[in-house]
Amino acid sequence: DTGVSQDPRHKITKRGQNVTFRCDPISEHNRLYWYRQTLGQGPEFLTYFQNEAQLEKSRLLSDRFSAERPKGSFSTLEIQRTEQGDSAMYLCASSFQGENQPQHFGDGTRLSIL
Amino acid sequence: AQTVTQSQPEMSVQEAETVTLSCTYDTSESDYYLFWYKQPPSRQMILVIRQEAYKQQNATENRFSVNFQKAAKSFSLKISDSQLGDAAMYFCAYRSALSGNTPLVFGKGTRLSVIA
């Protein structure tokens, strides 16, 4: 069990560029979650998957955001045409499906928009 | 929609002393889970303790314990014998028990400083 892995740890990009983040969950975890955390705030839910199926998307997830989890393993979160307001820490978590199972978090990807 | 409120942006405690972090939540559901997560600076969030709403007994994990008051919708965290390594952001979180492992709803967090 190597934990939830996120790549990259930091991403600096210019406004208007596209960025993609990757999350590798704990193996055998069938649920995978994306959260966004801005400075001084708690994490906010963006979207989550059960295996390869995207179960729910938050209203925070604008049309510029897309997430995939092909084959139910790793997941990618893409942001198109980045804006200043996208600057945040993007956290990934994974868990088993059962309701009493804890969610395990990765270190996050910190996105800075210039 | 459920909400979680942490009214203490910052707290401090002397090493070896006890500190209590407050959390209130709002929900119309009767079955749910409550959590406290710890996020050290530049490190990943880890689960400290969790409480099932249907259990009246307060959860305890070593030096960490909760005071769960379901009627008051209050869920405070008590840290006993505070250590320097306890310094971190602490987040209270809620999760519905309606359909499996649903996303967490977090409060804004409390930054805990431990004074040597």
- Give the structural class of chain A: mainly beta
- What is the CA-based Rg of chain A, rounded? 13 Å
Poorly predicted spans of chain A: none
Mean pLDDT of chain B: 94
Give the terminus-to-terminus CA distance of chain A.
Answer: 36 Å
**Helicity level of chain B, as a percent range?**
under 10%
Largest interface: A-B, 29 and 26 residues
The N- to C-terminal Cα distance of chain B equals 41 Å
What's the overall geometry of chain B? globular
The percent range for helix content of chain A is: under 10%
In this structure, how is the largest beta sheet of chain A organized? 7 strands, mixed
* Range of strand content of chain B: over 45%
Strand content of chain A: over 45%
**N-to-C order of helices and strands of chain B:** EEEEEEEEEEEE
Number of strands of chain A: 11
Kindly state the number of beta strands of chain B.
Answer: 12
Q: Briefly note the structural class of the backbone of chain B.
A: mainly beta
Question: How many separate helices of chain B?
Answer: 0
Radius of gyration of chain B: 14 Å
In N-to-C order, the SSE pattern of chain A is: EEEEEEEEEEE
Question: TL;DR?
Answer:
With 114 residues, chain A is mainly beta.
Protein architecture, described:
The complex is a heterodimer of chains A (114) and B (116). Chain A has 114 residues and is mainly beta. Chain A is 0% helix and 49% strand. In chain A, the strands form two sheets. In chain A, strands 2, 4, 5, 6, 9, 10 and 11 form a seven-stranded mixed beta sheet that branches. Chain A has a four-stranded antiparallel beta sheet with strand order 1-3-8-7, with no helix packed on it. In chain B, 0% of the residues lie in helices and 52% in strands. In chain B, a hairpin with an 8-residue loop joins β10 (88-96) and β11 (105-106). The termini of chain B are far apart. The mean pLDDT of chain B is 94. Classes of the chains: A mainly beta (114), B mainly beta (116). The interface between A and B is medium-sized, with 29 and 26 residues.
